[in-house]
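Hi R.,

Here's the chain you asked about this morning:
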Amino acid sequence: MNEYDAALQAMFDRQPSAGGDDGLFPSSRKGPGHLAAIERVTEWVRERFKLADDSAVSVSEIECKLPGCPPLETVVAFWENGQRYHFKIFKALAEVAPDNIPFAWLKDTLAVPEGFGCECC
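And the predicted structure, written out as tokens:
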């Protein structure tokens, strides 16, 4: 068994904790500035892509323990006129800066094609 398979097996074998951690998506230790960081990144995304106030924006920090994955990454998804867009930033949410948001002219490349099966975001 290679390192990747061993990590996968350990992840699936892990028992749920009393705190509700199901073993697949470990709960992060979120500090008091977590909500402020979400609001900050959401605002930067709205500004960068000139989104309307009623456009949905989702900002999440996810944790991955598989080899090759960054330990924490920020996942951003937004919707405009029925089209979903998404991108990842390979940094913890608290470390994201305005320069990490893709340029507005890249917006079309962030569109998720219809029928694309992506369970992450």
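Residues 21 and 27 are 6 Å apart (CA to CA).

Let me know if you need anything else.
M.
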